[in-house]
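ingest -> validate -> predict -> emit
validate: passed (alphabet ok, no gaps, 145 aa)
predict: started
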Amino acid sequence: MWQRRPFDDLSTMKLFEIYKLRDEVFTVEQKRIHNDIDDNDLKAIHVYDELDGQIAAYARVFLKQPGLVTFGRVVTAPNFRGKGLGNELLPQIMDTIRNYFPGNKIEIDAQVQVEGYYQKFGFHSEGEPYIHASTPHIKMVHEAL
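emit:
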């Protein structure tokens, strides 16, 4: 069941599960050394789906600056991949933006290997790829919702 929670509404156990999943995928699996936990977690709306008592898919959405919303830490748990959760997650993210941050342009830093995924949902690339957290990324934008 999909959930949307501000940071202060997350239980300590749910926050632990979110951080554990992000660490498992972004730090260990992708071998990226970076500060995964940051101040943006405090202002984000955390979007996640739970299956079999585990967080199966997750992202965080927050206002980057006035007029500009972003999202990131988009992840599907390894044991839930191949079930179409990514195609469910992005509409949940967009619905969160529509409900919590209406009228704000959307800008993300997407990993280059998933550029096509975001294009299917109306995003377009701007500029050239760049390295962020040791991984090739591209700036992608979407009109306000």
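The beta strands are 2-6, 45-51, 54-65, 68-76, 105-111, 124-132, 135-142.
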